[in-house]
Structure formats: C-alpha cells, structure tokens
Specification:
The protein is an alpha+beta fold and 266 residues long. The chain folds into 2 domains: 138 residues, Fructose-1,6-Bisphosphatase, Chain A, domain 1 (2-Layer Sandwich); 111 residues, D-Maltodextrin-Binding Protein, domain 2, CATH 3.40.190. It is built from 7 helices and 14 strands. Helix 1 packs antiparallel against helix 2 and helix 5 runs parallel beside helix 6. The longest helix has 23 residues. The protein is globular. The model has no long low-confidence stretch (mean pLDDT 97). The structure holds D-MYO-inositol-1-phosphate (IPD) and calcium ion.
C-alpha cells in the first residue's frame, strides 16, 4: 500500500469535511444540538460531515471497514479500518469557540498506518504515516526537547465521565498547578495530541476518550519522535480509552502522577 499517496488523498477528504464544518458554522443555531448523554453533544453537522467522509473513504479503499463516532458505518472485521471523528471539539463548535477539527486514521487490527487531522479554524493539516514521518502543512514535525516537568507546557483534558475522572483531574491539577510552565485545556483531543507532535505542547493526557479522538494524532506523535501509551504505560494503546502523549522525556513522571490517582473503574 502506498501510504504517502493515500495520506495525500485523506488530507483532501479531511479538508473538504473541514470546509463543510466551517461553512455550516456561519448559520449554525443552538436548536440543532442534541445531547447524546450528559454534556456530550451532537448535531446534524457531525452526522453530515461523517457521511461525506465515509462516502469518500469508501471510494478510496473499498476493502476497509469503519469505526466512526456517530456510528453511520460499521466494522465487520476487515483487515483495514478507518477510524473517523467527523467533528472533534463539538462542544467548542456549538458554542462558536475554537478549536475543532476532522480526524481520520487508518489502522489494521494491530497497528496504526496513517493519520490526518485537519483544523479548518487555522487551516492547518497535520498528517503522517507509519515509518514516513509526521508533517504540518508540508513541514516535518518534531516533538519538543523539554526535559523537566517544571518547565513543561501541558494539556490536561477533562472528559465527560466526571464521576469516574474527578479524583484524577483534581490530583493532576493539585500536583501540577503552579509547579509547571503552564497548563491548558482546548476541548479537542485530536488537536491537543497533534500539538505534542508539533512541539507546541510537551505532554497531553485524558481518559474515557474514543479511538476516533486519538488514533490519527497518536500516530503523528510517534512519528515525530514522542511517546504514546495508555495510563498503565503500555505501548500497545490502539484499543484503549486512556492516553498519555508526550515528548518522551516527561512520560515517566506524568505516568507516575496519573498512577497515584487512577480513574475509578480502571
Ligand atoms: C471530545 C473532545 C474533548 C475531550 C472529550 C472528547 P468530541 O470529543 O475531544 O476535548 O475532552 O473527551 O470526547 O465530543 O468533541 O468529538
Ligand atoms: Ca466528535
């Protein structure tokens, strides 16, 4: 499989969907929002974006199945599988905040092959493929070289599962706030993880996320020289729901902090 040319095609598909998101935002109304579960929102925009992406990816690689956030397509055990978030950052989007993006990964049962994340707000396309490197608009990405947690610029996301996650979030904030270079939260897991690949952030973590939230961006961090594991430090993270993505240097310390207060039920 020619992953480089496949990535170019997937970038085009993600950019089409991203333009659709941006265009719809101009006339978007809050009455269009439905709540899937507490505080987890969706609208016709997520669903239409997914339909567009699924139709184009099906034409590109007919033998691949799908894992998608809005469940418009299925996975039947095919050897290849697209993992699609048609709108990551939905809560930002419905409140007319940024960032939000489209995230598309291709994987086998064992490994990630390709990842594309397109941010229509900044018109930035992050992409890469296995053993081929990670890129932002044609420029090779490398993770940062920050080695001490006290100098680190981190992103701590707060998932929808507040009951299970509260003590972990509190422990991280309590341990890190005032002691590191800065803490942020941006409401898009895919873009937060891409920023680690781009060296804009030194580390990122979240639990209770979907494969579609992290699959594409996680591959980019690996290809940019960083490290991605689950909360237990396993390098085989592709079917998990809890992710630590770092420049590598900060991984052990962040993982230790998380292990001190693992989310309930994990
Ligand atoms: C969410 C975003 C958010 C993260 C949530 C995700 P969605 O995805 O990535 O940053 O905190 O856990 O579910 O709902 O906007 O696609
Ligand atoms: Ca989504």
């Amino acid at each position: 499989m020619d992953l480089a040319s496949l990535a170019a095609n997937v970038c085009r598909i993600a950019m089409n969907a991203g333009s659709f998101l941006k265009e719809e935002r101009k006339t978007f109304r809050r009455e269009n929002v439905e709540e899937k579960r507490a505080h987890d929102y969706v609208s016709y925009v997520d669903k239409e974006s997914e339909k567009l992406i699924v139709a184009e990816l099906s034409a590109l690689l007919p033998e691949a199945g799908f894992i998608t956030e809005e469940d418009s397509a299925v996975y039947r055990g095919e050897p290849y599988c697209w993992v699609v978030d048609p709108l990551d950052g939905t809560t930002n989007y419905i409140h007319d905040n940024t960032p939000y993006c489209v995230s598309i990964a291709l994987r086998t049962k064992e490994e990630l092959l390709l990842g594309v994340v397109y941010d229509p707000c900044r018109d930035e396309c992050f992409y890469g493929w296995k053993d081929g490197g990670a890129y932002l608009d044609g420029e090779r990405m490398r993770v940062s070289d920050v080695r001490q947690l006290e100098n680190a610029f981190l992103m701590i996301e707060l998932p929808y599962n507040s009951n299970e996650y509260a003590r972990t979030g509190e422990h991280l904030l309590h341990s890190l706030y005032g002691k590191v270079g800065g803490i942020r939260m941006n409401g898009s897991a895919a873009l937060g993880i891409c920023y680690v690949a781009a060296g804009r952030l030194d580390a990122w973590e979240e639990a209770f996320i979907g494969k579609w939230d992290y699959a594409a961006a996680a591959l980019l961090v690996l290809e940019a020289g960083g490290r991605v594991t689950d909360f237990y430090g396993n390098d085989n993270f592709i079917d998990t729901h809890h992710i630590i993505a770092t420049n590598g240097h900060l991984h052990p310390e962040l993982q230790t902090l998380i292990r001190e207060a693992l989310p309930l039920g994990m």
